[in-house]
Design brief:
Distance between the termini: 24 Å
Order of helices and strands: EHEHHEHEEHEEHHE
Largest sheet: 8 strands, mixed
Strand order of the largest sheet: 3-2-1-4-5-6-7-8
Helix content: 25-40%
Number of strands: 8
């Protein structure tokens, strides 16, 4: 992808995305850095050394990327993707294609200025939609997927560019709530982003796998009790005799 910008909403997803861009040696024309005053610290139940070796470095931030890449950066005060200040910067830049990394649900007015937003959704589109479909998929069959697509005003309605599939096989001491939220979710999105941006992407029709959609409706915010049940069920399916980890299919 050439001549694109990166709307960086500080957090684990953005740190993982920066590492994808570094690995592929892709430089955005501009990085717009939003604010995230509610960004949590790395959970204490996460083994940072193991995570860095197996997934991505949670301590790799923007300054690390900029130390090796000469990219223009614009800092703004916006904490919401829909803030007027952000829209002004998008329009001022002249860039039309943007990598989205969070900050809320994009409202219709941002699409009215000719901008396109590349998003990675943690589920197989169009079958699995909603903000916490990630947990519903774990509860359903301990599998995960991520789909990249150009967003439209309708939530999770864009046509998938690439779909990555994963199977979870981790023991209890690794599959903690902090790991799932702060590492696993950003990592499967980052892997899908990598597969989307690398040369030689396969047609989406070849990436589709039969999926058992966890619900016929969008999977909106899951109750904490159900989240705990999803983790318990996934941990219970652990098989030490099979490949251990988050296996990309």
């Amino acid at each position: 992808m050439k001549n694109f910008g990166f709307i960086l909403f500080p957090g684990m997803r953005s740190w993982a995305y920066l590492q994808v861009l570094h690995k592929l040696q892709l430089d955005p024309a501009l990085i717009i850095v939003m604010q995230n005053t509610k960004r949590p610290k790395l959970a204490t139940d996460i083994d940072a050394e193991w995570v860095t070796q197996s997934f991505f470095n949670p301590d790799y931030h923007l300054e690390h990327y900029l130390s090796e890449h000469k990219v223009k950066v614009q800092m703004i005060n916006s904490e919401s993707i829909n803030d007027t200040e952000l829209l002004q910067q998008l329009n001022k830049s002249g860039i039309k294609r943007w990598l989205f990394s969070g900050g809320g649900i994009i409202k219709k007015h941002l699409f009215e200025h000719g901008h396109k937003f590349l998003h990675v959704h943690p589920g197989q589109l169009p079958q699995v939609k909603g903000s916490t479909c990630f947990y519903y998929s774990l509860l359903c069959d301990q599998s995960l997927a991520a789909s990249s697509f150009w967003m439209t005003p309708e939530l999770d309605a864009g046509e998938a560019l690439h779909i990555s599939h994963f199977k979870v096989n981790l023991p209890k001491e690794r599959l903690s709530p902090g790991f799932v939220d702060q590492i696993l979710d950003p990592w499967i999105r980052a892997r899908c982003l990598y597969n989307t941006l690398k040369p030689g992407i396969r047609p989406t029709s070849e990436q589709q796998l039969p999926v058992q959609a966890p619900s016929s409706r969008p999977c909106y915010v899951m109750h904490p009790v159900l989240r705990a049940l999803a983790l318990r069920k996934t941990i219970g399916s652990f098989d030490k005799d099979k490949e251990i980890g988050i296996i990309e299919l």
